[in-house]
Design brief:
The complex is a heterodimer of chains A (115) and B (115). In chain A, 0% of the residues lie in helices and 57% in strands. The N and C termini of chain A lie far apart (41 Å). By secondary structure, chain A is mostly beta strands. Chain A is globular and about 45 Å long. In chain B, a hairpin with a 2-residue loop joins β5 and β6. The N and C termini of chain B lie far apart (36 Å). The chains are: A mainly beta (115), B mainly beta (115). At the A-B interface, β5, β6, β10 and β11 of A face β5, β9 and β10 of B.
């Protein structure tokens, strides 16, 4: 069964510091991977996605993620965070099950930026 | 503006009192889903709909009902809510549920408390 594990439930960092949010997946088939962000009191919005091709994927707001097939990881990074990046981040794998797309989400990582 | 609208945003109810959470999208999307978000568990799919009059169970369907009479609307019905249904609920829509690479658009969420 496909699953997604986000290794850190909370990550506190100082403003302008770099950050990495970790995501590992398990899948027996080729994977499509997504990162979604949930700002306070809002719904989720797409940050970036990996479908195929280059393993380094760039998203919105200066975030990027690297797909590593051998380590089954899709870690999210930003070189310098801002207060406005405070949010919960979800990694997800996209599958087709019983003819329909299914998103399997990780547990989420709450990123807190301290001034 | 393209959006998914859920109502209400907040709801406190008593055990056993039927309720409906509405969801509407203005993007002419075929595929719609309901998720619940619980701490440490990420988002789990409750029900999904591939198109009008086509609905199916997700991972946690017990205690919920849905209907899809119109393309834009996908209400979630709790016939007899119980305290274990206290959660944050999200509706999502996407262009199609037939492929893995489609982006999901989320509503702002409904925080439900059942006492």
């Amino acid at each position: 069964a496909q699953s997604v594990t986000q290794l850190d439930s909370q990550v506190p960092v100082f403003e302008e510091a770099p950050v990495e949010l970790r995501c590992n997946y398990s899948s027996s088939v080729s994977v499509y991977l997504f990162w979604y962000v949930q700002y306070p009191n809002q719904g989720l919005q797409l940050l970036l996605k990996y479908l195929s091709g280059s393993t380094l994927v760039k998203g919105i707001n200066g975030f990027e993620a690297e797909f590593n097939k051998s380590q089954t990881s899709f870690h999210l990074r930003k070189p310098s965070v801002h207060i406005s990046d405070t949010a919960e981040y979800f990694c997800a794998v996209s599958l087709i099950l019983q003819g329909a797309q299914k998103l399997v989400f990780g547990q989420g990582t709450r990123l807190t930026i301290n001034p | 503006e393209a959006q998914v609208t859920q109502n209400p945003r907040y709801l406190i109810t008593v055990t056993g009192k039927k309720l409906t959470v509405t969801c509407s999208q203005n993007m002419n999307h075929e595929y719609m889903s309901w998720y619940r978000q619980d701490p440490g568990l990420g988002l789990r799919q409750i029900y999904y709909s591939m198109n009008v009059e086509v609905t199916d169970k997700g991972d946690v369907p017990e205690g919920y009902k849905v209907s899809r009479k119109e393309k834009r609307n996908f209400p979630l019905i709790l016939e007899s809510p119980s305290p274990n249904q206290t959660s944050l609920y999200f509706c999502a829509s996407s262009h199609t549920g037939l492929v893995r690479d489609t982006e999901a658009f989320f509503g702002q969420g409904t925080r439900l408390t059942v006492v």
